[in-house]
Specification:
The chain is of the alpha+beta class. Helices cover 58% and strands 16% of the residues. It contains twelve helices and twelve strands. The radius of gyration is 50 Å and the shape is rod-shaped.
C-alpha cells in the first residue's frame, strides 16, 4: 500500500479523494447556516400566518371553539397567549411584546420564553388592550441534521474521489509507463522503438519527443559507424604503406639508392597518421569541453598574411593559384591565434586536396558587422546545396564523395566548426564566386570596441 501511494496513480487517487472530502466539508460548513436561516424563516412565516388565522377565529368563535383552537395549536408545538386589558393570561412573555400588542402593534420577532429561544408572532384583538401572541421554538435541530448527514456525503465523496482518481490515474500514468518502457528499450540499444501519438496533448508531445529521439539516435549511430569505418580505413592505408616499405627494407628488397625515397614515403605517411590522430584527440577534447584556449587580441590581417606566406610554397606551379586579400587597416578580434591558424590550415589542406592546378585559392580578411571575417574560397568542385546542410558533420561528406573524388578523413570540417564555436565565433559553408567552396569564419570583436 505504501508503495502504491509513491506512484503517480496512487498520488492521483489520494489527491482526488482528499479534494472530494474537502469539497463536502466546505459545502456542509457553507450550507449549515443557510439551512438554519431558511428553516427559521419558513417557521416564522408559518407562525405569522397562523397568528392571523388565530386572531380571526378567536374574535368570532365561542369558548368551546377557542379551546379547541388553542389545543390544536399546541399540538403543533405552538403556545398561545391571550392578552386582555394589557394583562397576559400566563406568565413568560417578554414585557415589550405585551406592551406592543396591547398598543395595537403587530409583533414578529424572536425572544426568550421560559429559558428557550422562540419565534414570537402577536396581533391585537378587537377590544381595548387585547391581543393574541403565538410562540414556537426556534429551529435548532437543523444544524444537527445537517452535520449528522455529512458523514454520508463524506463517504459518497470519498468513494467518488477514489473512483475518479483511479480512472484519471489510469489514463495519466499509462502513457508515462509506455514512455518509460520505450526509454528502457532505447537505452538497451533498440533504436526501432516508436510510440503511438495519442491525446492528451502532453502525452502526445512526450511520445513525439521519444520518437524523434529514437530516430535521431538511429541516424547518429549510423553516421558513427560510417565514420569509424572511414577513420579505420584512413588509419589502415598509411599503416599498410609504412609496413610494406618497412618489410621491403628489412628483406633487403630496397637497395641503397631507393632507401631515401622509401624513408621519405614512410615519413610522409607517419606525418599523415600523426595529423589524423591529433585531429581525433582535439575533436574528442572539444566535445568534452576541456580543450584549453588562450584568447588574446589578434590582428587577423597579420594572422592571415602569415598563413598565406606559409601556404605559398605548398601551392607551387603545379598547384592552385594562391592569392591573399587583406584590408589596409587592422582587424582586431579576441581569439586564440593558434587555434584559428589551425582552422585556416585545415581548410587550406582540404582545398589543396581537391582544387585543380591553376584554379583559385583565396585567403581573405574583412571587417564584419559582428566581428572580423576570414574567408577561404577556392575554384574546386565545390558543394551542392544538400552538401551545405551536412558540411560540418563528421564524415558526412567523406562518406558521400569517397568513391567520387579524393577525400580526407572526414574530420577536418567538423574540427574547424567546433574550434570556431569554442572560440565564440561562427562558421558557414557556401558557394564561392570562384566557382568552388567558400568557408566564412566570423570572430567576435574585442569587448573594448
Amino acid at each position: 500500500m505504501r508503495r502504491f501511494f509513491v506512484t503517480l496513480a496512487g498520488r492521483t487517487v489520494l489527491v482526488t479523494a482528499a479534494t472530494a472530502v474537502v469539497a463536502v466539508i466546505i459545502t456542509a460548513v457553507v450550507a449549515l447556516p443557510i439551512a438554519v436561516r431558511s428553516a427559521n424563516t419558513a417557521a416564522r412565516t408559518e407562525l405569522v400566518e397562523k397568528s392571523v388565522l388565530a386572531v380571526e377565529l378567536l374574535s368570532t368563535a365561542g369558548p368551546a371553539v377557542r379551546t379547541r383552537i388553542v389545543e390544536r395549536l399546541r399540538e403543533d408545538d405552538i403556545d398561545v397567549y391571550l392578552i386582555r386589558r394589557g394583562v397576559v393570561d400566563r406568565p413568560g412573555l417578554p414585557a415589550r411584546v405585551i406592551e406592543q400588542v396591547a398598543a395595537d402593534t403587530v409583533v414578529d420577532t424572536r425572544g426568550v420564553v421560559d429559558g428557550r429561544t422562540v419565534l414570537i408572532a402577536g396581533r391585537p384583538l378587537r377590544g381595548v388592550d387585547s391581543g393574541v401572541v403565538l410562540t414556537r421554538p426556534a429551529v435548532s435541530g437543523t444544524a444537527g441534521r445537517v452535520l449528522g448527514g455529512v458523514w454520508v456525503a463524506l463517504l459518497a465523496g470519498l468513494l467518488g474521489g477514489v473512483g475518479a482518481g483511479a480512472l484519471l490515474a489510469h489514463f495519466t500514468a499509462r502513457p508515462l509507463r509506455q514512455a518509460a518502457l520505450a526509454a528502457g528499450r532505447l537505452s538497451a540499444g533498440d533504436r526501432s522503438v516508436r510510440l503511438a501519438v495519442r491525446p492528451p496533448a502532453e502525452a502526445a508531445e512526450l511520445a513525439t519527443a521519444l520518437n524523434q529521439l529514437g530516430a535521431a539516435l538511429q541516424i547518429s549511430e549510423g553516421r558513427e559507424r560510417d565514420f569509424l569505418l572511414s577513420v579505420s580505413h584512413e588509419l589502415r592505408t598509411p599503416l599498410a604503406t609504412i609496413r610494406g616499405y618497412a618489410e621491403a627494407l628489412a628483406d633487403g628488397v630496397v637497395d641503397a639508392e631507393g632507401t631515401p625515397k622509401a624513408g621519405t614515403i614512410m615519413l610522409n605517411e607517419a606525418d599523415r597518421l600523426d595529423r589524423l590522430i591529433s585531429d581525433l584527440l582535439v575533436l574528442s577534447r572539444l566535445e568534452a569541453a576541456d580543450l584549453p584556449v588562450d584568447v588574446v587580441g589578434v590582428d587577423l590581417v597579420d594572422l592571415v598574411g602569415s598563413a598565406g606566406e606559409a601556404w605559398a610554397p605548398r601551392c607551387g606551379p603545379d598547384g592552385p593559384k594562391l592569392s591573399v586579400e587583406l584590408p589596409a587597416t587592422a582587424v582586431v578580434v579576441d581569439t586564440d591565434p593558434g587555434r584559428i591558424r589551425q582552422v585556416i590550415d585545415g581548410l587550406c589542406e582540404n582545398a589543396l586536396r581537391v582544387v585543380p592546378a591553376g584554379a583559385a585559392l583565396v585567403l581573405a580578411v574583412r571587417p564584419g558587422e559582428r566581428g572580423g571575417v576570414v574567408e577561404i574560397r577556392d575554384g574546386g568542385p565545390g558543394f551542392t546545396d544538400d552538401d551545405l546542410a551536412v558540411a560540418f558533420e563528421r564524415g558526412a561528406l567523406q562518406q558521400r564523395y569517397r568513391h567520387v573524388r579524393k577525400t580526407g578523413s572526414g574530420l577536418g570540417l567538423a574540427l574547424a566548426a567546433r574550434l570556431v564555436t569554442r572560440l565564440g565565433g561562427g562558421i558557414e559553408a557556401g558557394h564561392a564566386p570562384e566557382g568552388g567552396a567558400m568557408f566564412t569564419v566570423t570572430l567576435p570583436y574585442p569587448a573594448r570596441t
